[in-house]
C-alpha cells in the first residue's frame, strides 16, 4: 500500500535512446503562429499554449482524485485526454497529422477553446462526479477567450474531437478481468511481502494499445534461464546493491532509487514547452506523443509480465536454493530497499516506459538533448536531465538499487520501449508539409 501511495503521485515516466529523427523535428516555436497586422501572432500562440498546460494539470488532478489509479493506469488516462486535446488543436491549426482521425475545424475557430472543450468533454465523460470542478475550469478558460464565432466554433470542434477518442477507445479492455494462471514454482511470480497482494493491473497486458496494433507486437525474447550465468549475475548485483540493510549502495545511489518511485513528468513536459516557447500545436503534440508512448509501453511491459511471469528479486533471493543454479545463494531474510510492486519482474514497467518516452521525445524534438527538469514526489528534489541517455541509465539503475527489478528486466525494458516508439514515430504525430 505504501508503494501504491507513492506511485499514485506519479505523473508519467521518461527514458530512451538518444537518437533523434530530424525529419520529425519540431519547427521553431514562432513558426506555428499566424501573425496578424500587429505582428503579435506568435505571442498569442504561445499564450494559447498555456491552455493546454492548464488542462493537462487539471486532468492530472481529476484523474488522481476520481480514478485513484494504480501506478500504470495513470498513463492510460493521460493518453486519452492528451490525444483528444491534440486532435482538437491540430484540427484547427494543421501542422501535424491528427491521431486516427480526419476531422477539420473551420480555420476561424479558436484552437485554445477547442483544446479546453476537448479536455473538459473527455474528463467529464469518464469522471461525471467531477462535473462541477470541470465546468468551473472550462468557464475560467473561456473567460480568457473573446466571445464570438471563433470561440463557439472551437468549443464545438473540441467536443467533436473528444467524442471521437471516446468512441475510438470503447471496449478497449480497460479494467477487464484478467487472471494470472501460473502455479508457483521456481522462477515463477507469486505475491510478494509485505502485502502479498495479487497481480495488479493484469488487464493492462491485454488492453488494446493506442499506437501499436497488438499488445505483443514488441514482446521480447525470454529472460535468462535460472541456471544461466547472467541470471546468477543479476541476483548477485541485487544482493549487493538492492537490499534494505547491509547494501553497498552509496547515498547518491539510494537517493536515485527513491527519486524514481514517483515523478512529475507531466509537469516536466509542460516546463519544457514553456521554457522553449512552444506554440499550442507543438505543446499538444508533445503531450500526446509522450503519453501515448508511455501508455503503450505499459501495455507492452504487462504483456511480457503475463507471458513470462518471472518471480521478483525478493522471492528469487529468498528461494535461491530452489533455482538449480550453483552460483546463487539463498538469503531467507533479504528485503529490498523499496516495497516490491505486485506484478512480475520481466519486463520492468518503469524502464520500458522510459525507453519509449525518450525515443519519442528525441524523435519529435530532433535532438538527443531532452532538457527536462523533473521533480520527484518521493524525495521532493528536482533533477535536470539534459540527455536521454542519462535518464535511461538512471531509471535502470534505480530499479536495481531499489531491489525490485533485475538488471536484465531493466535493460531489455529500455530497449523494448525504444523499439515500439521508433515504430510509432513513423506513423503518428508527423508534420504535415
Question: What can you see in these coordinates?
Answer:
This protein is mostly helical and 433 residues long. The protein has one domain (2-178, 191-425): Vanadium-containing Chloroperoxidase, domain 2. It has 14 helices and 3 strands. It has helices at 2-8, 41-67, 73-93, 111-126, 131-142, 149-168, 229-241, 251-259, 265-275, 280-308, 313-318, 349-365, 388-401, 407-425; strands at 263-264, 372-376, 382-385. A 3-stranded antiparallel β-sheet has the order 1-2-3. Helix 2 runs parallel beside helix 4 (111-126) and helix 12 packs antiparallel against helix 13.
The Rg value, from CA coordinates, equals 22 Å
Text of the CATH class = Mainly Alpha
- β-sheet strand percentage: under 5%
Task: Give the low-pLDDT segments.
Answer: 1-43
- Termini Cα gap: 50 Å
H/E element order: HHHHHHHHEHHHHEEHH
Would you tell me the structural class of the helices and strands? mainly alpha
In round numbers, the mean pLDDT is: 90
Helicity range of the residues? 40-55%
User: In total, how many domains does the architecture comprise?
Assistant: 1
The CATH architecture can be named as Orthogonal Bundle
- Largest sheet properties: 3 strands, antiparallel
Q: Which shape, going by the Cα principal axes?
A: elongated
Amino acid at each position: 500500500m505504501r508503494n501504491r501511495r507513492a506511485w499514485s503521485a506519479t505523473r508519467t515516466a521518461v527514458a530512451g535512446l538518444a537518437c533523434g529523427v530530424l525529419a520529425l523535428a519540431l519547427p521553431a516555436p514562432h513558426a506555428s503562429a499566424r501573425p496578424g497586422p500587429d505582428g503579435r501572432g506568435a505571442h498569442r500562440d504561445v499564450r494559447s499554449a498555456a491552455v493546454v498546460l492548464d488542462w493537462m494539470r487539471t486532468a492530472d488532478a481529476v484523474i488522481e482524485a476520481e480514478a485513484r489509479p494504480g501506478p500504470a493506469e495513470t498513463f492510460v488516462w493521460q493518453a486519452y485526454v492528451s490525444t483528444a486535446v491534440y486532435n482538437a488543436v491540430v484540427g484547427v491549426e494543421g501542422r501535424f497529422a491528427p491521431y486516427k482521425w480526419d476531422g477539420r475545424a473551420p480555420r476561424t475557430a479558436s484552437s485554445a477553446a477547442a483544446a479546453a472543450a476537448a479536455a473538459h468533454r473527455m474528463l467529464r465523460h469518464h469522471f461525471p462526479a467531477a462535473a462541477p470542478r470541470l465546468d468551473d475550469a472550462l468557464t475560467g478558460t473561456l473567460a480568457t477567450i473573446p466571445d464570438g464565432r471563433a470561440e463557439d466554433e472551437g468549443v464545438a470542434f473540441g467536443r467533436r474531437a473528444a467524442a471521437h477518442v471516446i468512441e475510438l477507445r470503447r471496449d478497449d479492455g480497460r479494467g477487464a478481468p484478467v487472471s494470472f494462471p501460473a502455479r508457483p514454482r521456481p522462477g515463477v511470480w507469486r505475491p510478494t511481502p509485505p502485502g502479498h497482494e495479487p497481480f495488479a493491473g493484469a488487464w493492462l497486458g491485454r488492453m488494446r494499445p493506442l499506437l501499436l496494433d497488438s499488445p505483443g507486437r514488441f514482446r521480447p525474447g525470454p529472460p535468462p534461464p535460472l541456471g544461466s550465468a547472467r541470471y546468477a549475475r543479476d541476483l548477485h548485483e541485487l544482493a549487493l546493491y538492492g537490499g534494505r540493510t547491509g547494501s553497498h549502495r552509496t547515498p547518491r545511489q539510494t537517493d536515485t532509487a527513491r527519486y524514481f518511485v514517483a515523478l512529475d513528468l507531466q509537469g516536466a513536459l509542460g516546463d519544457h514547452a514553456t521554457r522553449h516557447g512552444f506554440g499550442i500545436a507543438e505543446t499538444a503534440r508533445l503531450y500526446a506523443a509522450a503519453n501515448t508512448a508511455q501508455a503503450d509501453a505499459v501495455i507492452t511491459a504487462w504483456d511480457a509480465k503475463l507471458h513470462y511471469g518471472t518471480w521478483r528479486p525478493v522471492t528469487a533471493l529468498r528461494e535461491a536454493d530452489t533455482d538449480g543454479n550453483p552460483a546463487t545463494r539463498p538469503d531467507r531474510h533479504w528485503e529490498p530497499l523499496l516495497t516490491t510492486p505486485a506484478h512480475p519482474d520481466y519486463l520492468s514497467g518503469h524502464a520500458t516506459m522510459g525507453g519509449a518516452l525518450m525515443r519519442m521525445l528525441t524523435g519529435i524534438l530532433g535532438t538527443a538533448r531532452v532538457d527536462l527538469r523533473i521533480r520527484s514526489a518521493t524525495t521532493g528534489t528536482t533533477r535536470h536531465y539534459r540527455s536521454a541517455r542519462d535518464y535511461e541509465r538512471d531509471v535502470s539503475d534505480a530499479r536495481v538499487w531499489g531491489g525490485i527489478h533485475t538488471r536484465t528486466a531493466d535493460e531489455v525494458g529500455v530497449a523494448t520501449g525504444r523499439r515500439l516508439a521508433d515504430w510509432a514515430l513513423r506513423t503518428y504525430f508527423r508534420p504535415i508539409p
